[in-house]
Amino acid sequence: MDRKQNNKLIAISRWKKVHENEERFIKSNSIHNNYLKMRLLGYLAGDGYVSVREDKTGPHYGIKFFPDHESLIKPFIEASQKAYNKTPIVKKLKNHYMLSVYSKSMVLDILKEGDLRSLAWRLPKKFNNKEGKKEWLRAFFDSEASVVKNKITMGAVNEAGMLQVQKLLKEFNIESRLYKYAQKNKKWNDVFFLQILRKESVRNYFNEIGFNHSLKTEKLKRYFASR
Questions:
Q1: Which residues does residue 154 pair with via DSSP β-bridges, in sequence order?
Q2: 52 DSSP β-pair partners
Q3: CA-closest candidate to residue 107, choices 210, 10, 26
Q4: pLDDT tens profile 134-160
Q5: 154: closest CA among 193, 181, 189, 205?
Q6: CA 188: distance to chain centroid?
Q7: So what's the architecture of 145-227 in CATH?
Q8: For the chain, which residues make up each domain, given as ranges?
Q9: Does residue 22 carry a pLDDT above 70?
């Protein structure tokens, strides 16, 4: 065996041990930190993606999240560190941030919950408790929702996913309406708008779910202070 082949075997062995250690960490923390995993899934369904890319050097596993405000950086990093022992790389872009994690174990574990693409995402398969449901909703609304005067609204092209969100909100006594906007250009996907309109439901959302997004939190506080 020549030196090049020996170095390759050493590298493969090293990465195998890293992967095994990561899997042990995930398994040992899976129940205790399930709510943090739900937070990550909510963020990724809203403003992120998970990828497995193949090239001549082999498969590459990546996770990217694109928050529009710095207040979302800390909760994403906290969840990634505690649930997966991974610290995302943070990069400031023009109008938002990009958080990146490269980990085979983390990617494969997250993909067990299903497809996270815009037309395919669904609620996680394994909500262990009420706290996990709250974390997913808060993260998804951090990414997708807007607070406009006296209502909370969001739009997405995924009708099945939005129907699930609407049903989950009802578990917290939060009533919402779902509207379909048919695009004039038939090549474009229809958009489904979910709106929380009733004052009681907006208050229930604020008290039961809330936002990590500081700007959205302040808008709701000002709304209730003016009533």
A1: 194
A2: 61
A3: 26
A4: 999 999 999 999 999 889 999 999 999
A5: 193
A6: 24
A7: Roll (3.10)
A8: 1-117, 145-227
A9: no
